[in-house]
Amino acid sequence: MGSSMRTSLLAVVALVAALELGLVGANFQDTCDITWEPQNAKFDEGGNHLTLSLVSNSSGCMLRTKKQFIFGSVSTLIKLVKGNSAGTVTTYYTSSIGDNHDEIDFEFLGNQTGQPYTFHTNVFADGVGQKEMQFRPWFDPTADFHNYTIFWNPCMIVWFVDSIPIRVFRNHAAEGVPFPTRRPMYAFSSIWAAEDWATQGGRVKTDWSKAPFVAEYRSIDLRICECSSAAGCSDACAGSGNWYAAPELCKLTDSELHQMQSVQLGYTIYDYCADPERYNGTMPPECSMPQY
Ligand SMILES: *[C@@H]1O[C@H](CO)[C@@H](O)[C@H](O)[C@H]1NC(C)=O
Ligand SMILES: *[C@@H]1O[C@H](CO)[C@@H](O)[C@H](O)[C@H]1NC(C)=O
Ligand SMILES: *[C@@H]1O[C@H](CO)[C@@H](O)[C@H](O)[C@H]1NC(C)=O
Ligand SMILES: *[C@@H]1O[C@H](CO)[C@@H](O)[C@H](O)[C@H]1NC(C)=O
């Protein structure tokens, strides 16, 4: 067998492995492991409903997908901690393991009863983060389940809330801005104690007499290019035949763009690209590059 034949055979094997997409509408018990304080996780409804509890300042809970992936879409429905959630942080993110890691974050910072949550977003590539944007939710995220989706393809990362894009981080790797493309990630969700900084800059502490603080989850949808070793599948996951690589998914539609602009106009509370003092006048290069 010639070496080019062997190479293309390997490529086919990798492609088949990569195309084994995740399970749509799958349940938490089948798709995830509890990797921190399993006694604080409770599954019911056959694994489709899950609660994670924060019990004390050293005992929260963490969920992690069994599978690793490069590119795709991960979504879940979350109802955040009701009432006084000051000092609590509920997270929903993807991350690689090891040095110079890649990570795409949603973090939900709690507040006193009646005061608004903060939706914090960030992205790390090659270990470098500090690309924060924060939003006020335009609804009460503790009253009902809402759909939080991380979409990641070779063109861009999009954070969606109930199918409304709230933020895009475009791939400007060609212009020297790191973008995650080759490190397999897991998806995670957790609840933990962060009263030192989370609420009003740490001024409002957690009322531990109200513990446990409970985040509720329903249904998880993983449409991912499964990949556990970059050498084995990152090329296949980058391939143009994957569903998320369709040319129309390389930018937002006009109506998505309008939706995002109105959310950003009305609900942004922090944007690192609008914080020149932090950078002493020299803004990160991507801040002056097209994002959409
Ligand atoms: C956590 O709670 C314990 C018991 O109330 C307290 O002694 C300890 O100082 C707290 N630790 C932190 C980091 O706040
Ligand atoms: C979240 O919404 C997207 C559509 O934007 C949908 O494809 C996905 O299945 C939803 N996720 C869940 C867990 O229902
Ligand atoms: C909590 O509420 C206060 C007052 O409305 C607000 O300033 C703050 O941004 C809210 N969120 C957090 C995480 O502190
Ligand atoms: C900020 O810029 C000023 C003037 O160029 C310089 O003196 C100072 O060292 C800079 N500070 C930082 C933190 O880069």
Task: Please tell me about this protein's structure.
The chain has 292 residues and is of the alpha+beta class. The protein has one domain: Jelly Rolls. Helix content is 15%, strand content 35%. The chain is built from four helices and 15 strands. The chain has helices spanning 3-19, 28-31, 230-237, 254-267, and strands at 32-36, 41-44, 49-54, 61-65, 69-79, 88-95, 103-109, 118-124, 133-135, 146-152, 156-161, 164-170, 186-193, 213-226, 268-271. An eight-stranded antiparallel sheet has the order 1-4-13-6-7-8-9-15. A seven-stranded antiparallel sheet has the order 2-3-14-5-10-11-12. Strand 7 and strand 8 (118-124) form a beta hairpin. Helix 1 (3-19) packs across helix 3. 37% of the residues are buried. Mean pLDDT is 92; it is low at 9-24. The structure holds 2-acetamido-2-deoxy-beta-D-glucopyranose (4 copies). One 2-acetamido-2-deoxy-beta-D-glucopyranose (NAG) binds at residues 109, 111, 115-116, 118, 198-200. One 2-acetamido-2-deoxy-beta-D-glucopyranose (NAG) is lined by residues 109, 111, 115-116, 118, 198-200. Catalyzes xyloglucan endohydrolysis (XEH) and/or endotransglycosylation (XET). Cleaves and religates xyloglucan polymers, an essential constituent of the primary cell wall, and thereby participates in cell wall construction of growing tissues. Glycans are attached at residue 111.
